[in-house]
Every structure is written in C-alpha cells, then in structure tokens.
Amino acid sequence: MLSAPEAPEPRGRYWPEPAPTRLKVWPAPFKVGKVGVLLVNLGTPDEPTAPAIRRYLREFLSDPRVIEIPKFVWWPILNGPILLARPKKLVHRYEGIWMEGGSPLLVYTERQAAGVRARLKARGLEVEVAVGMRYGKPSIRHAMMQLHNAGCEYILTLPLYPQYSSSTTATVIDEVTRVASHLRDQPAMRFVKRFHVDPLYINPLADKIGAHWAEHGKPQKLVMSFHGLPQRCTKLGDPYCRDSYETAAALAAKLGLADDEYLVTFQSRFGPAAWLQPYTEPTLENLAKSGVTRIDVVCPGFVADCLETLEEISIEVRETFMNAGGERFNYIECLNDDAPWLDALTDMVQRELSGWPIRPD
C-alpha cells in the first residue's frame, strides 16, 4: 500500500524526478513501467475543528470551477462572512459523523482503494492504487507523486462521482493535468468521465435498496436526492442535471418502479441563487403534509457517505419530515465498502485499464 506524509509542493516549473528513474548506465534495457490507479473524491477537513474546516473551505470555495463568480466580487465574501462564521457552525455537524480514522468520506474512499487493490492482486495483476482528494489531504498531487515515484508510467484517474459536472469531475482533471505539467517524465493518462448508468454502478446500488426493502418493506415513495448545482451552470451547458435524471431512470428501471413510486430532488444548495429543483428538504416536508408518511431516501450521486448524506439527509431532512407528520424515514446508506460494490468497482477499473501493459503479480 502506498503511503507517505504530505510534502510541500516542489518549486520550479519542472520537478526533480525520483532517483530510480535517472539512468546511471546508458543505454539500459527497456522495462515497461507499472500501471497505477488514482481514485479521487471531493475531500474533507483533517479534523472536526473550526481551523481545519476553515482550511478546507478556503481551498474548496476558491476553486473557480466551484464558484463561478468574478474573484474581485467573491473574495471579500469568502474571506469575510463565510470563512469567519461558517466553520464554527459546521463543527458539531462534523463531530456527529466523525469515525475512527477520520471523516466517513476519507475512511470509505480508502477502504474502496484497499478493496480494489486486494481484488486486482487476487486476479494476478500488479497495479498500484492511490487515493487523492481534490481538496484537503491526501491531495491529488501527493497521490500522483506516490504513483510516479513507484514507477507508474500509466495512470488511470477515476473520479468517484457517478455523474459528470464541471465542478467535480472537470476540476479533478484540471488538477491531475496540472500536476503532470510539472513532470519531465510524464505518464500516459486516462480518465473515467462518468459511470452514472453503468450497470457496474446501478446493479449493486439497486441490489442494496432491494435488500433493504426485503427486510423493512417498501415505502410509499423512494426519494433519490442528488447534490445540487446552480441552475445557471445547467443553462451554460453543464450536463450534471441530465446525468442525474438518467441515473434515476436507470435505477428505477432496475428496481421496477413506476413513475409515481419515486422522486428526484436536489440538496445542499448554497447562497441566494436558484439551484436545481425540486429542493430535497422542502419537498419532503410537503410530502409529509400531503399525507405521505413512509419514505426511503437514497443519494445516488455519492458512492461514499459524507456530511451531505449522514448529517444533512439522515439527521436534518429526517427531522423536517417527521416534524411535518411523517411516520417512517429510512436513509439507505451509500455503497461505501460493500463487497458487491468493491467487486464492481474493480471490474470497472480493470475494464478501463484494457490495453495497458499490466504486469502479472
């Protein structure tokens, strides 16, 4: 397993190569380099404290792909009311979901990487697997350099976002290629753009929901809550909204649901601008007031549980629904480190590595 402490970013336009790649005797016999896989997720604070949350939010909300507002307008807002007040408000929310080993997002992403690594090894394939977070630690640069220093001349980047968006997948690609731009000896690179309707994703998710229903019974309505996005981004051509509805349709078809048995909503809106609708929390409140008393909620835009699922949905939205007259609210967890998902994720990785010279283990 690749592991090393984070180091400051090297100075200079091109970074020094690791010693093992510098030929001491030339010419030398050519040896095919290793194949590496980089699993990337959004990121998380290092700890549930205001300073750590502030560092994370500063990096996250400084990304122009995330906040498409001119810097001279956004900078005073970010460094004023947001970073001064919001971190303190989030401390108790992070404390409520924190796991041994860190935040759920990081813990489950690392378990996913370990599961893929072990399964590839069991299949007789020598593939290095590293985890990078777009914001926070371990950084994408850190993970890329681990793979590079391990001799990987081929790197597959798999952003763990089922649906594509400029503010998620695209910014991962930006950062991976930025790091590569500093390397003299660049690897061959591939990227997985989306897997929103891939049976390798839809099937294990549908099976998990089906298993939950076999034990607890079906609800009156299955709510599929996706992370929100400003409506302006969709109008400018971001395909995330379309991808989300395609995921919902594929999942509903696999579950055999009629159109009136499920509902698509969007959560986690931020700021005063209009975001994708219908919004999750007010929609569930209205459902309860209209007589819908039993619902299940699943978040198909996430493959690992995090603040937005475990706190926002399972605690805050649950409370809103129950206070409005609901009687049963079940949040169905993300795929996390479920064995069927790790099997499917490994299949996906192996498929995307097709044609590259993977050494036998």
TrEMBL record:
What's the protein called, per UniProt? Ferrochelatase
Q: What is its main location?
A: cytoplasm
What biological function has been recorded for the protein in this entry? Answer: Catalyzes the ferrous insertion into protoporphyrin IX.
TM spans, by residue?
Answer: none
Pathway entry: Porphyrin-containing compound metabolism; protoheme biosynthesis; protoheme from protoporphyrin-IX: step 1/1
Asked if the Swiss-Prot or TrEMBL record annotates the protein with the keyword Protease, the reply is no
The record's listing under CDD domains reads:
Ferrochelatase_C, Ferrochelatase_N
Q: Give the catalysed reaction(s), semicolon-separated.
A: Fe-coproporphyrin III + 2 H(+) = coproporphyrin III + Fe(2+); heme b + 2 H(+) = protoporphyrin IX + Fe(2+)
Cell compartment(s), UniProt: Cytoplasm
Family, as annotated = Belongs to the ferrochelatase family.
Could you tell me which HAMAP family the record lists for this protein? Ferrochelatase (MF_00323)
